[in-house]
Amino acid sequence: MKCEVRTDIGRSRKNNQDSFVLVTNGNDDVLGVVCDGVGGAAHGEVASQTAVQWMKQQFEQAGSFLDLEDAKAWLYTSVVDTNDVVYKMAAANTTLSGMGTTLVAVLITKFGTIIANAGDSRAYGMDGNGIFRVITTDHTYVGNLVSTGQISLQEAMNHPKRNVIVNAVGLWKKIEVDLFTVNDNTEKILLCSDGLHGYVNEEDIRDVLMTDSTTARKTDVLVDKANEAGGYDNVTVLLIEKTGR
Q: What's the start-to-end Cα distance of the chain, in Å?
């Protein structure tokens, strides 16, 4: 298995509010997290950095998972706890009021692979036959329109309210956490902030993942494509390939 991650400030922003962590523990479990801070001047970068570091700390302190359900429970609780930490930090400091962050995480264990999501950072999967799909559901106003069949994913990319988030870490006291169990035949998992999927269409993302390039090269190309599309946002991509090189 090969894991790579890249982040880039883009061509329009003055700072990078994306944060990530990619870590393996003593049991060979892997945790990957991508966060995209929201709040702009309200220190979204503080929220995203706090979230990934808290997730990393909890992962390093976790013992061995007993089974898949135990791993799922840990991941769910960790995201909820992370929300509490960021929310209380913002509530305790008026300069941080209103900060928050999206969060998408993958936990790989010997029992299986789980994805957690809150916000509009995404997880994609690709199987050995090249079938590419979105695993997560965007927690946005437009994401709700897509999930109810009112608009297509392509229409969502250009919708004027595509950046209106309805769920994220730290913005509200209570958080919704989606959990997804990944099929065993999934050979590639891509986590990304909306700096990628908001500007690069899914066919282009799939084409990059289908190439025979190294895992590192694929992440570089995806970041390049986001910048070539205008670089209007920070972009982070985390790619895990079972047969990567």
A: 8
**Statement: residue 41 has pLDDT above 70:** no
Dihedral over Cα of 191, 37, 148, 177: its sign: positive
- Token output for 148: 């109810």
- Residue 161's pLDDT band (cuts 50, 70, 90): confident
What are the residues facing 32 on neighbouring strands?
Answer: 22, 106
Assess whether pLDDT exceeds 80 at residue 240: yes
Please report, as a single letter, which amino acid is at residue 197. H
Dist. CA 8–CA 203, nearest whole Å: 22
The letter for the amino acid at 30 is V
**C-alpha dihedral sign at 42, 175, 137, 57:** positive
Instruction: Please give the biggest Cα pair distance in the chain.
Output: 51
User: What is the bridge-based pairing of β-strands 112-118 and 100-109?
Assistant: antiparallel
Query: Whose CA is closest to 78, among 143, 21, 1, 144?
Result: 21
**DSSP letters spanning 78-114:** HHHHHHHHHHHHHHH-GGGTT-EEEEEEEEEETTEEE
CB atoms within 10 A of CB 46: 22
Q: How far is CA 67 from the centre of its chain?
A: 24
CA distance 225 to 237: 12
User: What does residue 183 show for φ and ψ, rounded to 5 degrees?
Assistant: -60, 145
Would you list the DSSP string of 128-181?
TT--EEE-S---BHHHHHHHTTSS-HHHHHT-TTTT-BS--BTTSSS---EEEE
